[in-house]
Design goal:
Length: 185
């Protein structure tokens, strides 16, 4: 707990105590947001040539190929206990493989923007489930405000959908074909 100049205990550091955010820090956060948020677009694009299972395998393999040399260069080693490997397998299945597969399957029928918005609701489900199963049934103003702010963060940035053509209008083929000019994609 920190005390401000009036002697009240605030629990938060004073504004003067907060570190300044550098331009490099802002650039790193922006790059992280771009990489993190674009994952749903990359899944949608990959679905043009691969199925959901192939995309999951490629994502996990790519992560392994990138992170293993980094871990080994830092002196980390693979665990030797079989039981620990079992725990790691279950964690990887529940936290990586299954969600990646579900997003791949979902994006076969919904847009990447919808998938990203649904993923953004994940932190909102945690307090709801904790309340429903009885783990945490205390509702404080801080929790309610945080939940409301998170909900607004998911709902407010929703882009306006493009207008749909009238039902009676014929659909136009984006790649018209003629007998002399076959379509190429």
């Amino acid at each position: 707990m920190l005390a401000d100049v009036s002697g009240w205990t605030t629990g938060y550091p004073l504004k003067a105590d907060l570190p300044r955010i550098s331009r490099a820090g802002i650039a790193r956060v922006a790059a992280l947001a771009l990489l993190w948020g674009s994952g749903f677009l990359w899944i949608k694009l990959a679905l043009r040539g691969f199925n959901a299972v192939q995309i999951v395998f490629a994502r996990l393999l790519l992560g392994f190929l990138i992170l293993t040399p980094i871990a080994l260069a830092r002196g980390l080693r693979f665990p030797r206990q079989g039981r620990l490997w079992g725990h790691l397998f279950v964690a990887a299945l529940v936290a990586n493989a299954v969600p990646y597969l579900w997003f791949g399957i979902a994006e076969e029928t919904i847009g990447s923007n919808v998938a990203g918005a649904l993923n953004a609701t994940t932190p909102l489900w945690t307090p709801l489930l904790a309340f429903l199963v009885g783990v945490d049934r205390t509702v404080t103003m801080k929790k309610a405000a945080g939940f409301a702010l998170g909900f607004l963060g998911v709902v407010v940035p929703r882009p306006t959908p493009l207008p749909r053509p009238p039902r009676h209008a014929p659909r136009q083929d984006p790649l018209p074909t003629t007998p002399h000019q076959p379509a190429t994609a």
